[in-house]
């Protein structure tokens, strides 16, 4: 499954109300490390079937970024039943991201 975009308007439905485990990639278009991490997250989204994957542009959704204390990007947050279950900051390896999803 491909990574989908979410926005401030759709975040509640896409992420918080989603019964599945959800990984959200907090990013910005100008962020070099975010561009490095994006293909890794995309690859994982095609391999991990029991998780939904979304990207959220922090420049377009500063309120959500502030709510989840996203101070640096890229930040990945795994949500389970609408709750923040795991978080990582910076570029991560594919294996670390998969472990984070599994252990959340």
Q: What this model shows, in words?
A:
- Strands 1-3-2-4-5 form a 5-stranded mixed beta sheet.
- It is of the alpha/beta class and 104 residues long.
- The longest helix has 14 residues, at 32-45.
- Strand 4 and strand 5 form a beta hairpin.
- It has helices at residues 11-16, 32-45, 62-67, 94-103; strands spanning 4-5, 21-27, 51-57, 75-80, 83-89.
- The mean pLDDT is 96.
- 35% of the residues lie in helices and 28% in strands.
- It has a single domain (4-103), classed as Glutaredoxin (3-Layer(aba) Sandwich).
- The two termini are 20 Å apart.
How would you concisely characterize the structure shown here?
With 104 residues, this protein is of the alpha/beta class. The chain has helices at residues 11-16, 32-45, 62-67, 94-103, and strands at 4-5, 21-27, 51-57, 75-80, 83-89. A five-stranded mixed beta sheet has the order 1-3-2-4-5.
């Amino acid at each position: 499954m491909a990574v989908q975009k979410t926005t401030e308007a759709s975040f509640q439905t896409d992420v918080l109300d989603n019964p599945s485990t959800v990984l959200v990639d907090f990013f910005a278009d100008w962020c070099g490390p975010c561009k490095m991490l994006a293909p890794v997250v995309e690859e994982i989204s095609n391999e991990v079937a029991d998780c939904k994957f979304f990207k959220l542009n922090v420049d377009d959704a500063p309120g959500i970024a502030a709510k989840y204390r996203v101070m640096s990007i890229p930040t990945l947050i795994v949500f389970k039943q609408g709750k923040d279950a795991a978080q990582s900051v910076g570029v991560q390896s594919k294996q670390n991201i998969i472990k984070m999803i599994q252990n959340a």
